[in-house]
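Hi R.,

Here's the chain you asked about this morning:
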Amino acid sequence: MLTSQAKDKSQTKNLQTMINHVVLFKLKGYPEAEKVAVLRKIKDALESLKDKIEQLKYLEVGLNYELNAKSYDVCLISHFESIADLDIYRVHPEHLKVVELIQETTVERAAVDFEF
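And here is the predicted structure, written out as tokens:
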């Protein structure tokens, strides 16, 4: 006899899992006015990927409301149907353009990818 937990796992195996790709960025030490402009530029660049990369199924970009926080400044949440699709995204020319911008303007990055 299966426990309810085992039943839940066996039933969800038939459902397609997706990959949640979460990335945090901390900007370089910009003066406040310049930081606002850089944040907007990064947000716009990331959001522009929605219509350019087929494998990208969902994208959300959040900016920390506190400009001088010691924590991260930008959060990217994106969803993919598979790890293979995430891998395609990682090397996509449009994504690499945004990576270049982010590398020029940030000092830290943290990321996690998980199934959901």
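One quick note: The mean pLDDT is 91.

Cheers,
M.
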